[in-house]
Every structure is written in C-alpha cells, then in structure tokens.
Design a protein that fits this description.
The complex is a heterodimer. By secondary structure, chain A is mainly alpha-helical. In chain A, about 50% of the residues lie in helices and about 10% in strands. Chain A is built from eight helices and four strands. The chains are: A mainly alpha, B alpha+beta. Bound molecules: zinc ion (2 copies).
C-alpha cells in the first residue's frame, strides 16, 4: 500500500478515525507522517491537519467527488472552485450556494452531516424559525389527534395555517 | 483600559474557577460573517473599510458599547499583538494581521473579545477560568444576539452560519477547555484518552494550537464538528467528556500519591529547585517544570504558591511578555536569562511558609 499523501513511498503509519459513524482511514509514509506533525509518539495525529489536507488538493477529495467543477466561478466574489480547493477557504457567503453540489461531499466528510440543526438568527432567519415552529406544531397536532383531543387539534391546525401564510 | 491587557500579565482566566486544579479555562468562540461582504482573505482597503465600519457601528449602537474597547491592529505593534495572542485573546494567525480593518473588541479583563476580520468577519469569544462551558456559551450568545440586531449575518437554512472555512460552517461554534493532565501523561494513558476523545467528535491540541502539543502537559480539547449538532449538544458533550477526563486524572493522581509518594515528591521538589535556581531557562523547559510544581501545589506537596501565580507564569515567560517587561527586544539567549529571573522572582517573593516542601536551597538571596 502506498502513502495517501505522496503516493510514492510505502505507507507505514495507519490511522483510523470515526466521525459520527463515518470511518476515515489514512495511510502515510514516514516522511509525510512527520510532515503532518504527528501529535504524539505512536501514530496519533492532529486531526485538524488531516482535515486541512482534505480541503487542499493533496487528498484530491474535492476533485474526485465533483465532476470537474474546477472552472466554476462564483458570480458574486469571482473565486473559482479551483481556488477553494487550494486555499481551503470559500470567497463569500454566496459561494456556498454557487458550489452547493460540489461542497456537499466535503461537508459530509468533515462533519458526518450536511444539515444545520443549531441556532437560527432572528434576523434573516425568520422563515427558518417559522418552519421550525410549524414542524413542532405538526408533531403536537399528531399527538392531539392520537389522543382524540379534537378541539385542541383544530386549534393547532389553525395556528399552522396562520404560520404557513406568513411563509408565502 | 487596553493598556492593562497590553502592559500587565493579568487576564481573567488566570483566576481560580470550578475544577481549576485540572481545568485552566473554558472558551466558546462563534464565527460570524456579514451577508454581502466577501470573506476577510478577499478584502481590500476599500471593502475592508466598509466592513470595519459596519461592524464598529453595530458595536457602538449596542449595549456592549461601554463594556468593550476597540483596538485597530495598525495602531498596535507586532509585539502588542503577540502579547494578546500569548494571553489567548487572539489567534496566532490574527497576531500577524496588521491591516487597519483588522482588530479586536475586548473588555478590560479579557473575558469577552471579538476578533474582527481574522478568518471570518467576526469571531466572538468568551473565555472564563475553570470549567464553565455553559456560562461561556450563554455570554457568547448574548453578544451574538446583541450584534445581530444591527448586522445581517450570512446564514443558510441548510448550512447554518456560513464561514470562510467549511470546517466551521453550521453553528460556527468552537467550544474548548484547557486541561492540565500530568498524571494521565505520566502513567502513559494519554494515547488512550486522545483516542477516546477522537471517537466522540472532539479533538486535542497543545496550549498554543498546532505545534505546541504536550507542552507543559497542557491540552486543549475542542469540538471538531460544527454542522449537524446543536450548540447545546456540543456544550453538553464537551462538558461530559471533560468531567470524565477530570475523574480519570484525579484517580491517577491519587494512585501516584499512594503508590509512589516519594517519587512524586522528588519530581515536584526537583522541578521547584530548578525553577528557583536556574540562571537561564528555555520556555519549553520552564513549562515542563511549572507543570510539576502545579501538580505539587494541587496535591498539597508544596504550599504557599497561589495557583494564580502559576497560571500567570505560563504567560509571563512567553517571548512577547518577557520583552514587554524588559522594555526592549531580546535575542533568545537574553530571553532565557530574563525568563529565569522572572520565574525566580515570582516563586520566591511569596510571603508564605515553604510548608513540607524544599526550601530550594538559598534561592531567597538576590
Ligand atoms: Zn508519503
Ligand atoms: Zn463567492
């Protein structure tokens, strides 16, 4: 087996990591392992370094997973997908939309997930907050129906309709 | 008030806090970006100026106005920026920033800080002593809410808060604790601990990030994942894992005390002896001995040294703090000499009884 990094020397250091159930294997030669900055003596690596190289060109993940989007350019900031794979940084918020498809696998690889579930800003996130509220109400509606509390169910249904109007 | 943070060693996190025999400090950092402005690495003077204005105006309109002071990095020397970095108020990357649109909003004790135009437009940080993740989180969120009322942050329903680097996208939150784990290291259990931490989506770094791994047996543990977990889950997870590590470190310390009492005392006392007698010392060597003395203080082998003084020394012996104190630039050799003086002064000036500990020779004389 050859080194994931230089693809020239035999891999002597093997490293397995789990993120949210996703298994990640890395095989490196001595030289590349040393360059990556072995965290502790026997083969424990600094994870951020490895992640950094996922985004850089060395691991080739971005090129591999997205069919040559390299000359795609963000219309807002002018950054190309090729730039992103080299710097590991996006150019602007719009880049996330422009390169959405190409980024998806990278996000999954880093986070084991690609859907945000945390805080939503009250400014600019109004719609998301309403949607979340609707989801919560729908669950309550289900409960009310199951428990045959029909009056309550009707009330909940009205609130949902009210909120859905705000979304339009 | 910034003169205090720049001219003295003191920062709030050096004070004692919950579990501070093992947890030095807790930190929550939130990455935020403005909706329509390119990320900091693409800013030029013109867009940078506009970005800086938006942010500083939002701050001035907020209730944080009197609490925080604004420092623009083109008004600070490289040494002053390094001082802020050594205190953990800005990142090593940000310490190299010197554009007029890059800077820091900070309170007078360094508990709350907002890095401006580091990797992201805003990095809101709350840094407190001991294990206080929830409190850090609460305070950082408050600042976020406060700024949000005057700024439109880049946010996407699916991807969350949008950040320059996709490793931060989602919550944009990095929560971390700084731990002192001498017993875990001594008993060879570090790898097991690191492995365990890695499987829980957490990561381990050294005291000053990459490249400082294991220095002084200090370790920074932080969440690796920012997308697909709620802030509350991240905080709860990190706190739970930290409590387990604390438990393990305490058990191992107890074992060392019971089974290797003399060896342990010997180690601690030798370290104290070197620190109070050395004529020159590198920061790596000093950190190693400070770690032993810290363990000795926390286990009652040495008394009369305030834990605060040891936290302060960890920062006071760094290159920028040494040079600031001396009031001049110094080559590594002069720094080593100066460092030995600072340590000796700090450790021997205490008005306390030496306890059962070594008198450390004749180090009291000047
Ligand atoms: Zn290689
Ligand atoms: Zn863009």
């Amino acid at each position: 087996m050859f080194c994931d990094e230089c693809k020239q020397k035999p891999a002597t250091v093997h490293f397995t990591q789990f993120f949210n159930g996703t298994k990640m294997e890395t095989h490196l030669c001595d030289t590349c392992a040393a360059k990556k900055g072995a965290l502790f003596m026997n083969g424990q690596f600094s994870i951020p370094n490895l992640l950094g190289s996922f985004l850089g060109h060395t691991f080739g993940i971005l090129q591999q997973t997205a069919a040559s989007p390299n000359n795609l350019t963000c219309s807002h900031c002018g950054v190309t997908f090729n730039d992103i794979t080299h710097t590991g940084k996006l150019g602007c918020a719009e880049c996330y939309r422009e390169f959405d498809q190409a980024l998806e696998p990278t996000l999954r690889r880093i986070h084991g997930n690609s859907q945000h579930v945390g805080k939503v800003p009250s400014r600019g996130g109004e719609k998301v907050l309403i949607k979340k509220k609707i989801e919560r109400l729908k669950a309550q509606l289900q409960e009310a129906v199951t428990a045959e509390r029909y009056e309550q169910a009707a009330e909940i249904r009205d609130s949902i309709k009210e909120l859905e109007k705000q979304l339009e | 008030m910034s003169s205090d943070l720049l001219n003295s060693t003191y920062v709030r996190w050096m004070e004692p806090g919950p579990e501070s025999d093992i947890v030095i400090s807790s930190r929550v950092r939130l990455a935020r970006n403005l909706q329509t402005v390119p990320f900091p690495h693409l800013l030029d003077d013109k867009t940078g100026q506009a970005c800086w204005q938006q942010i500083t105006q939002a701050w001035q309109k907020s209730s944080l106005k009197d609490q925080l002071e604004l420092l623009s990095f083109n008004n600070l020397t490289a040494l002053d920026r390094q001082i802020l970095m050594e205190k953990h108020l800005i990142s090593p990357n940000h310490a190299e920033a010197n554009k007029f649109y890059q800077g820091l909003l900070v309170d007078k004790e360094g508990q709350l800080a907002i890095m401006i135009n580091e990797e992201d437009h805003l990095r809101i940080q709350c840094l407190l002593p001991g294990l206080q993740m929830e409190e850090c989180y609460k305070r950082a969120q408050m600042v976020d809410d406060e700024l949000e009322s005057n700024l439109s942050f880049a946010f996407d329903e699916q991807r969350g808060y949008l950040t320059a680097c996709p490793t931060n996208v989602g919550t944009g939150m990095r929560a971390s604790v700084m731990l002192h784990l001498p017993a875990i290291v001594t008993t060879g259990q570090l790898n097991a601990v690191v492995h365990y931490i890695g499987q829980l989506g957490l990561t381990v770094r050294g005291i000053y990030g990459e490249g400082s791994e294991g220095m002084g047996n200090f370790f920074q543990v932080s969440n690796q994942i920012t997308l697909g977990q709620t802030e509350e889950d991240i905080i709860a997870n990190l706190t739970a894992v930290t409590r387990q590590i604390i438990q393990q470190e305490r058990t191992l310390r107890e074992n060392l005390k019971n089974q290797m009492h003399i060896q342990l005392e010997d180690r601690v006392c030798r370290a104290y002896g070197i620190l109070t007698n050395a004529r020159m010392i590198t920061s790596n060597e000093a950190l190693g001995h400070l770690s032993e003395v810290r363990l000795g203080v926390n286990m009652g082998i040495i008394d009369g040294i305030q834990p605060y003084a040891l936290n302060e020394l960890v920062v006071a012996i760094r290159p920028a703090h040494l040079q600031k104190r001396a009031g001049r630039e110094m080559d590594p050799l002069s720094r080593d000499i100066h460092r030995a003086e600072v340590i000796k002064e700090k450790l021997t000036s205490r008005k306390a009884k030496p306890g059962s500990s070594p008198a450390a020779g004749t180090s009291e004389e000047k």
